[in-house]
Write a structure and sequence with these properties.
Length: 733
């Protein structure tokens, strides 16, 4: 059997997998094989057998590298022995702690452990406490656990902090050299109420495109982005820390920033009424929403105001209201910005970009970090306005870089794989939606399906399947376009305060404006070779090719930034899940109305009304007999009862169990009068599906024919006419 090398990925149930270095399918490790290894260890394994589905199972031959990180967990004292139960269940084994290695921690506290003896086939790992985090119920403890559990860098190096402290407090005269002065342009920032760093400012004015009577209406749209690259230089301590983090991480009531606060909230933040350095993307937008011209240049700006989304939405809804009166001269500029946004939105629709309706939630916490309530995050016209302006600037940045043939990091989002496309086609066919998906689907096709099914009771399930069919966006030097947004080239330019790829894009654009090339490995600039300007690429590939080594470096940076982006998302979700479990622990035994959000072979995921908390209704807790999982239709079907549960079905449940350690909330079905009424409504909603409606039509047709035959057998005045009218009133299948 073959031998391979890879990384161990533990599973909370005790077994594990080896993620192979060669990218081939993972290798299963039994619980016995996991005794001698830990999650994230590097190992060499031999494939010893394949299961019935052809999946490989392995045996560990050698430990290539032990993962040397602190493990977070609860310190327990059981049967006279000290041990730590890891917070991350993927580690699978408790860690023994000698009596003299507890660092004065007490039982029940959360601690960080360093291994002193690795596990073996016949012994548990041994470690010592290196940090005492505190009690599990301490405010903010869930965040302290998450940043260590997911290895999120949360402390800046001493060199980085010293370098940040030495930076100036304001823009100096030397900083203004070779920059366009836009301080008289009424740029404004529009962000959320709780935002602290402002990395983009916008301005819009109407213009005439062309001359004479044939001149068309258009807009000049300026998007000014904080010039982080002026202060964060390659190879310096701040840049090293920023690259290691790659992104800011957002938790309820706390942010782990990519840059020190001196930069993120002060010197680089486009605060109102102070001069700030920026990179400007100056665009011309025509009446159809197409960007017909653009230019990039370093600038000095002064934000004339700090708006919130709520305030701008109120002004646009009532330009003579109290919010508008307080802002005075800036209101006309917001109106022009809204006009340009409507044009950009029109162009988005013409491109066929995907725009699914989803409900995002936000946690409102009290002073102790506990949840007060969970509420939907409402997107208004101001949110969409800023989003379209940022998309336009990002597309211009990608086009500018690609046109010059310079390597960079593109934000790539690829369409459905063959397997996912076939699965989606089968699902649409099984649901009888009356829509088809081609073998080479476009974003417009998916958007058309989403639009056509928006009013259906199972719209949430259909849209979830559409989303699931697409691949995850990532950073790479190979430009494959952005499927969801329907762009041939797309990059990130607009958030260099919180995303490292944006900072790299700024450095590339600055180098190109100087007629130079930026080298990622060294951070150095060199004169670009003198060549005739190439035509605009149409295949997504640079016309001036970079060396294979250079592209490999950019791809490595892209993989690093993509991985850290996923790590940040996982840490944020983990904290939110813990807070929701803590929130629901006080509601054990209470009953709630909810909606099925997803169907899996082992049960239903239900989202509670008003609370916006999701939990599992296990198949054994539904009641009413045996249920079979229909993979094609994504539903559970009761064999005896005939009841079907799919996404969108209304149910009434009781909170039966909350497990903080596994971040899991369990429900059981309620069978009282209210639950029966909701179930009846669910059946009625299901009856409106195409299949149920077709069955009802056929049943009515059969009844009508039977009535006609009876009428012939026993003639009555006008009998044939009555039967014919019955058929005519029946909707077509």
């Amino acid at each position: 059997m073959s031998e391979v090398t890879g990384t161990v990925l533990g599973h909370r149930d005790g077994h594990g997998f080896v993620q192979r270095d060669d990218g081939e399918p993972d290798i299963y490790l039994s619980q016995q094989e996991m005794h001698s290894v830990l999650h994230r260890d590097r190992v060499r394994v031999r494939i010893v057998r394949y299961d019935r589905k052809g999946r490989p199972e392995g045996r560990v031959l050698d430990i290539v590298e032990r993962r040397k990180v602190s493990i977070i967990g609860r310190l327990l004292h059981e049967n006279g022995m000290w041990l730590v139960a890891p917070e991350d269940r993927r580690y699978g084994q408790d860690i023994l702690i000698p009596k003299n290695a507890t660092a004065a921690a007490t039982a029940g506290q959360v601690v960080a452990v360093e291994l002193t003896e690795p596990p073996s086939m016949f012994s548990q790992p041994v470690g010592r406490v290196v940090e005492v985090l505190g009690e599990i119920d301490d405010p903010g403890m869930e965040i302290e656990i998450a940043v260590r559990k997911y290895e999120v860098p949360h402390r800046f190096s001493a060199e980085s902090l010293a370098q940040a402290a030495a930076l100036p407090d304001a823009v100096r005269a030397t900083d203004r050299r070779h920059r366009i002065d836009l301080t008289d342009v009424p740029l404004v920032t529009i962000d959320g109420e709780d935002a602290r760093d402002f990395d983009d400012a916008v301005y819009c004015e109407p213009i005439r495109l062309g001359r004479g009577k044939g001149a068309a209406a258009g807009w000049r749209l300026v998007v000014a982005i904080a010039d982080v690259s002026h202060y964060v230089r390659p190879g310096e301590a701040i840049d090293d820390d920023a690259y290691e983090r790659a992104t800011s991480v957002y938790f309820p009531r706390r942010v782990i920033p990519m840059l020190p606060e001196k930069l993120s909230n002060d010197l680089c933040s486009l605060n109102p009424q102070v001069d700030r350095l920026s990179m400007a993307c100056d665009m011309i937008v025509d009446a159809e929403g197409a960007v017909t011209a653009y230019q990039f240049y370093p600038a000095v700006i002064c934000s004339h105001a700090r708006f919130t989304y709520t305030e701008v939405a109120a002004i646009l809804a009532n330009t003579r209201g109290p919010e508008a009166q307080r802002r005075g001269a800036l209101v006309p500029h917001l109106i022009h910005l809204h006009e340009a946004y409507r044009a950009l939105l029109k162009h988005r629709g013409n491109r066929g970009a995907v725009d699914f309706e989803t409900t995002e939630t936000q946690i409102v916490a009290d002073e102790n970090g506990r949840i007060e309530r969970i509420e939907p995050r409402k997107r208004n016209e101001a949110h969409r306005l800023i989003e379209e302006a940022m998309l336009a600037a990002n597309v211009c940045a990608a086009e500018f870089v690609a046109d010059h043939g310079h390597p960079a990091l593109y934000r790539v989002h690829e369409g459905p794989t063959t397997e996912k496309r076939i699965a989606l086609q089968n699902y649409l066919k099984a649901m009888g939606l009356g829509v088809t998906l081609s073998d080479d689907p476009t974003p417009g096709e998916l958007q058309a399906i989403a639009t056509a099914t928006r009013e259906r009771p199972d719209a949430a399930q259909i849209h979830a399947m559409l989303l699931r069919s697409m691949q995850q966006a990532h950073y790479t030097a190979a430009n494959s376009g952005h499927f969801g947004l329907a762009y041939d080239a797309y990059t990130h330019f607009t958030s260099p305060i919180r995303r490292y790829p944006d900072l790299l894009t700024h450095r590339v654009i600055k180098a190109l404006l100087q007629g130079k090339r930026y080298h990622l490995a060294s951070g150095a600039l060199e004169d670009a070779p003198r060549r005739a300007r190439t035509e605009k690429p149409t295949d997504g590939k640079p016309k001036r090719s970079a060396s294979a080594q250079e592209l490999e470096q950019w791809n490595a940076a892209g993989a690093h930034c993509s991985a850290n982006e996923r790590r940040a998302d996982e840490a944020s979700r983990d904290v939110e899940a813990w807070l929701k479990c803590r929130y629901m622990r006080d509601r054990l035994g209470e009953e709630f109305n909810g909606t099925v959000s997803a169907v899996v072979p082992f049960g239903l995921f239900v989202t509670l009304d008003d609370l916006y908390v999701e939990g599992l209704l296990h198949i054994t807790e539904i009641g009413g007999g045996y249920y079979r999982y229909d993979e094609l239709r994504q539903e559970l079907h009761g064999e005896r009862s005939g009841v079907r549960y799919a996404a969108g079905t209304r149910v009434r449940v009781q909170v039966s169990r909350v497990d903080l350690d596994s971040r899991r909330i369990d429900f059981r079905m309620v069978r009282d009068g209210e639950g029966d009424r909701m179930l009846a409504r669910g059946r009625k909603a299901e009856a409106r599906s195409p299949q149920a409606e077709l069955a009802a039509v056929r049943a009515r047709d059969r009844a009508a024919k039977k009535g006609a035959r009876a009428a012939k057998a026993r003639p009555q005045p006008g009998g044939s006419k009555n039967a014919r009218n019955t058929r005519e009133r029946t909707p077509r299948g």
